TrEMBL record:
EC number: 2.8.2.-
PANTHER family given in the database record: CARBOHYDRATE SULFOTRANSFERASE (PTHR10704), LD35051P-RELATED (PTHR10704:SF44)
Native organism: Mangrovimonas cancribranchiae
UniProt keyword annotation of Transferase present: yes
Top EC class for this record: transferase
GO BP terms in the entry: N-acetylglucosamine metabolic process; sulfur compound metabolic process
Protein name as it appears in the record: Sulfotransferase
Keywords, ordered alphabetically: Transferase
Length: 285
């Protein structure tokens, strides 16, 4: 499905920034950074837009879009959207739900960047992937995953560094931080793979493809070919020269299976008991 919208979905710490950089190296593709469009726990765009759409006032809706106080990179994308064009499209297009608004915002941001194919990195929580496929016609999804033991190692390192900083919102601190991150990682990773498994049984299975973090370290050229094949583009249209495989938890050189040096025997056993079968199914045992 050439020229389809492209979305990067999955759990955190799975290399989403690399995939965004890679796709954006294509002269026709613009992948917006995280928009916090729809999330089950965090403040998001969806709930605000849903309320505004009930009022049938496009001017008020537009004001809400520009004034939303969301963390992260939301503002950098919205700043690409000219207000005159946004209100024009809101008035002209049939806007039924927040996904229609997301569609307009991403298309206008892409035009501002001088590109044609649009998408976003982690606009929704992975649990809404089926909804995204339904609401955005012909869109394609890169579904990211990683060895959950390395997700845990990375996420705990990141959160332990942040716990003393102002504004950190992770609710658990101190001695309870490590077990909290451990069990949260297991819960989220298992949920994400359950969602992926359901998608593979659905009629839209060909619009979703899994990509593993480990492969962008050990098989980067093959990953580029796989992505190009999936979105129906030429591998030569992408540039990997300036691609950075980022793990913001560590300043050292990236390496595979960092968990082997970091996890205790008890932690390894917990992973085996809790998600060992699913890890084996996806090649992590």
């Amino acid at each position: 499905m050439k020229n389809s919208p492209i979305f990067i979905i999955g759990v955190s710490r799975t290399g989403s920034k690399f995939y965004m950089q890679l796709l954006n190296s294509h002269k026709e593709i613009f992948i917006a950074p995280e928009l916090m469009f729809k999330h089950p726990q965090k403040k998001d765009m969806f709930s605000t837009l849903n309320e505004e759409l009930k009022q049938l006032d496009n001017r008020s809706l537009m004001d809400s879009i520009y004034n939303l106080n969301l963390k992260g990179s939301y503002k950098s994308t919205i700043d690409l959207v000219p207000s005159d064009l946004l209100i024009k499209h809101l008035n002209k297009d049939e806007v039924k739900n927040p996904y229609d608004v997301l569609n307009i915002i991403l298309q206008l941001a892409t035009q501002s960047e001088g590109k044609k194919i649009w998408g976003a990195k982690f606009p929704i929580h992975f649990s809404y992937t089926n909804e995204l496929l339904k609401e955005i016609n012909n869109c394609l999804v890169l579904f990211l995953t990683r060895d959950p033991r390395d997700i845990y190692t990375s996420d705990y390192t990141k959160k332990s560094k942040e716990k003393r900083t102002t504004g950190n919102k992770f609710p658990i601190k101190g001695y309870l931080l490590k077990p909290a991150v451990l069990f949260y990682t297991i819960w989220e990773w298992r949920r994400s793979l359950n969602v992926y498994g359901q998608l593979q049984k659905s009629k839209d299975h060909d619009r979703v493809r899994m990509f593993k973090y480990e492969n962008i370290i050990s098989q980067k050229e093959n990953v580029v070919k796989d992505i190009a094949n999936f979105i129906d583009e030429s591998p030569e249209a992408f540039s990997t020269e300036e691609m950075k495989i980022v793990d913001s938890s560590f300043s050292k050189k990236l390496e595979l299976n960092r968990w082997k040096k970091k996890l205790s025997l008890i932690e390894k056993l917990i992973f085996k008991i809790a998600v060992g079968r699913k890890m084996k199914k996806y090649g992590y045992y």
